[in-house]
Amino acid sequence: MSVESLIFEKGAPGRRAASLPAMDVPTEALDSMIPADLLRATPAPLPEVSEIEVVRHYTHLSQRNFGVDTGFYPLGSCTMKYNPKLNEDMAALPGFARIHPLQSDSSVQGAIQLIYELEQYLAEIAGMARVTLQPSAGAHGELTGLMLIKAYHQSRGESHRNLVLIPDNAHGTNPASATLADYRAVEVKTDRKTGGIDMAHLKALLEANGANVAAIMLTNPNTLGIFEANVVEIARMIHEVGGQLYYDGANANAVLGITRPGDMGFDVVHFNLHKTCSTPHGGGGPGAGPIGVKEHLIPFLPGPLPAKDERGYYWQDAGPQSIGKVRANMGNFGVLVRAYTYIRSNGPDGLRHVAESAILNANYLRHELSKDYEIAYPLICQHEFVATAQRYKDEYGVTATDIAKRLLDFGMYAPTIYFPLIVHEAMMIEPTETETRETLDYFVSVMHQIAEEARTNPEIVRTAPHTTVIGRLDQALAARKPNLRWQPGQEKTHS
Amino acid sequence: MSYVPNTPEEQQAMLEQMGLTSMEELLTPVPEQVRLRRPLNLPPALSEPDLKRVLTRMAAKNKNLDTTISFLGAGTYDHTIPSVVPHLQRRSEFVTSYTPYQPEVSQGMLQAIYEFQTMVCQITGLEVANASLYDGSTALAEAVLLAVGPGGRGEVVISEGIDPQYRRVLHTYAFARGFQVKEVPTRNGVTDLEALDAAVNPTTAAVAIQQPNFFGCLEDARAIERIAHKGKGLFITTITEPASLGILAAPGEYGADLAVGELMSFGNTMSYGAPALGFMASKQKFVRQLPGRLVGQTVEEGGKHQTGYVLTLQTREQHIRRERATSNICTNQSLLAVGATIYLAALGKQGFRELAELCLQKAHYAFRQITAIPGYEAAFSSPFFDEFVVKLPMPAARLNHHLEQNDIIGGYDLSKSYAGLDNHMLFCVTDTRSKEDIDHLVAVLRATQGVQA
To answer: Could you read off the pLDDT tens digit of each residue along chain B, which spans 453 residues?
Structure first.
């Protein structure tokens, strides 16, 4: 066990690590430029450290962090696939990395071209009429999509629609986005046999309140890894009552080239480019959450949108019905360059191969793990599946958390646990297509060993992890007495 | 180029191990009527070297700031990036990790974010900061949402001195959530205090300004604080040019309840404006209403005293609280926060102040030189930091076109965003502009006298 002290605990007065440009202009007295009461009274107490200290400190921190480049990362619904190095190099080209968002269109023809073409690629992949690349992440795409739906209903004199139907296995962002768009989230039950929507429940909800339904938000395949077999019928039912269908693209890695949300009947789709298109997660962002829409929603899209004529590429202002902007500038361009590179790298056959291989790897793991673990819905899955540790909890007091922590001891990250909420002791496993068979087999052997340990030596699982830089942390203390920043005089972090 | 490692033969063997013969059998859950029975209509796959060539050519069609002298800011700023920042930020253990759900193997990212939160508090003078938001504009929207509260109604008053893009975003969120936004005009480049005083009433949920504002001018933050706090509303300050905090009063020093804004320019590439780095800092009392991730320091379980870091107060968040969450945000901008943290560590206490002095002095030098040219006048007499507005002897678009032909990116054409500001340009001069660059601009402007209409 080791500690890396905070940067604030390092260094000495007067030390510094960065050299700034020379003051090469004639200077004026500060008080002649800025009124005294607008001046800073106390300097910001930032660290005083040398360059070698900065380098060692953040190098040590990186060594205390696990990424896809470190090892297997089967975190369900997060699609932790390999992030190609080529994409990083392309995003760092000065022509992409060193341009200002308010430059004239004529001076950024390559950037607008990339955005223009990426929009078209994503529209084709999703089966939609038009795409905007403005939203910053999946949840931002959800919010934007719901705003479009709101504007659409309003334009038809149907502002009274205030309900958004959301399955009980949906990502938490769905109901949170609905609230943010001033909608009420209504839960739709999962069919316990199929893992899809409980059609009787949906029917009852629509009969009771169909006229107030603004939309349904579906993830397909859903968070159980199950493809919604009734999706066409659901689309028909929702459209019949005047609602719209929103596709949460968190799991779109499973559908590339195999099926398209637009063909399933969805009106709005978001992509998580940091999942499906292999752009790195960066420890929690940046992502990008472009949305695609059908023809009838195009007038409401946020602007500006890229366009092209005989003179070249340009930004076109949105029309009068546009919802406005959902962020400053044009979307997470650095992420978009990576996604563009990924799509061109794979091509149409390659993308389909991505989806098929992801599905194959998930089913392979599901098949192999089912010897030791109960699978919540033991059917053919798509890109992920959910296992449960319920039996181990009941019989040996070993929980999903314990199993997750024990996995860390073997140089692997853990699955998503306790989600979806409808499966007790859930372990949601998504291997992605970029893992070798040997890695999958190793994961299976480790999961088997943990199952054995649960039976024979449960304590070793319950007290895991044992080989990480630190053991389990006191979450309750963190929440009860929040310490969210370092302050002078605070107890030193050395043990 | 494919990144799928297993060969077709290996994949076939895996299928057979499951008792299957073909991939198609795994696709049976997808109903035939929605199957795509044709290849996607996309360009064919390219090898790595071929694709590099395509993208390098595309990038070369853009005029970039390494080879062009720019005086464009208006919300996006070019500051020197020390070499240590990209080298450390791009370490792949940071880059390829997810949100740190398993703290035992994510201490590096968690500690870096804890240091980020601390530094945001240090530069803003506030008591608590979150782990980041998408960008400055959505950070402002989230601050306003916090102020209007879970009901989502009520009215907020904002200054027209706030970045026009930020205001547009706020109006979009207001449309969705159902609150009202009242805009107060500016006078002499700063918020009209009389108009502001008239607009704020006891039910106003929040008053928001930008400091320095979009014109680069300095608002009388202390006077605005008094107006904002005459009722129960919150006082929100937006900061798009964080270098200003090296010299200007910190939001905590003039009584702001919340400070939001943009930190992308601290150590991160500009990348056509995004990914950006929104931040939010507040007084301690709002900690449980903050949107987004928060990292907290704690200790190991079981009476051991070793320090560690975790995501905390998660009951505010969407994955726990669902429709009752304080925000829907999940993925934020962690890697950019790491960049800003390394940047501020490298700059340090002294460098942070020097950065602000460089921006301030260089901008004021440029201001004196430009306004000495016949026909070029200062638009406002309010004090400014590193941006200023000049009334030109011609439309800004025409001047910019001319400058572009001389490989100079001119300032922002204010007629795009403000009625009545035809022929007005917002110039930005940061630490990255040398005296030589400024003198070159001035020489070109003087030579431009001849091309006026």
So the answer is: 899 999 999 999 999 999 999 999 999 999 999 999 999 999 999 999 999 999 999 999 999 999 999 999 999 999 999 999 999 999 999 999 999 999 999 999 999 999 999 999 999 999 999 999 999 999 999 999 999 998 878 999 999 999 999 999 999 999 999 999 999 999 999 999 999 999 999 999 999 999 999 999 999 999 999 999 998 999 999 999 999 999 999 999 999 999 999 999 999 999 999 999 999 999 999 999 999 999 999 999 987 779 999 999 988 888 878 888 888 888 899 999 999 999 999 999 999 999 999 999 999 999 999 999 999 999 999 999 999 999 999 999 999 999 999 999 999 999 999 999 999 999 999 999 999 999 999 999 999 875 554
Please indicate if any CB of chain A lies within 8 Å of the CB of B224.
no
Decide if A110 and B61 are in contact by the 8 Å CB cutoff.
yes
Say yes or no for a CB contact (<8 Å) between A80 and B98: yes
Is residue B197 domain-shared with residue B332, that is, in the same domain?
yes
Chain A touched by B439 (CB under 8 Å) = no
Q: How many domains does chain B have?
A: 2
Can you give the CATH number for the domain in which B145 is found?
3.40.640.10
Q: B279 and B143 in one domain? A: yes
- Choose, out of B78, B328, B332, B369, the residue to mutate when testing the contact with A (most A CBs < 10 Å): B328
Specify whether the CB–CB gap between A44 and B122 falls below 8 A. Answer: yes
Cβ neighbours of A350 in B, within 8 Å: 1-2, 45
* Whether residue B210 is found in the same domain as residue B338: yes
Min Cα separation A456/chain B (Å): 23
Cβ distance A433 to B177 less than 8 Å, yes or no, reads no
> Is the CB of residue A168 less than 8 Å from the CB of residue A192?
no
User: B209 — contact with chain A (CB < 8 Å)?
Assistant: no
Kindly indicate whether the ipTM for this predicted assembly is greater than 0.90, answering yes or no. yes
Decide if A86 and B2 are in contact by the 8 Å CB cutoff: no
- Let me know whether B156 and B197 are in one domain: yes
- Residues B85, B346 contacting (CB under 8 angstroms): yes
Pairing of strands A244-249, B180-184: unpaired
Sheet bearing B377-378, strands edge to edge:
B377-378, B387-391, B424-428, B412-413
Residue A129 CB coordination number (10 Å) = 14
B74 CB neighbours in chain A (<8 A) are 102
Tell which of B292, B322, B343 closes a domain.
Answer: B343
Mutate: best of A218, A484, A493, A495, partner B, most B CBs <10 A: A484
Neighbours of B90 (CB within 10 A): 16
User: Chain A partners of B306 at a C-beta cutoff of 8 Å?
Assistant: 1, 3, 470-471, 495
B163 in contact with chain A, both atoms CB, cutoff 8 A = yes
* Domain around B369: 69-79+349-451
Enumerate domains of chain A plus CATH numbers: 1-64+469-495 (no CATH), 80-465 (3.40.640.10)
Q: Classify A212 as helix, strand or coil.
A: helix
- Minimum CA–CA partner of B116 in chain A: A485
Name the residue among B373, B85, B43 with its Cα closest to residue A125.
B43
Reduced to 3 states (helix: H, G, I; strand: E, B; else coil), residue B346 is helix
Cβ atoms within 10 A of the Cβ of A207, count? 9
| pTM of this structure | 0.97
CATH number of domain containing B411: 3.90.1150.10
Residues of B with Cβ-Cβ distance to A331 under 8 angstroms: 274
| Strand intervals (E) in A317-402 | 374-375, 385-388
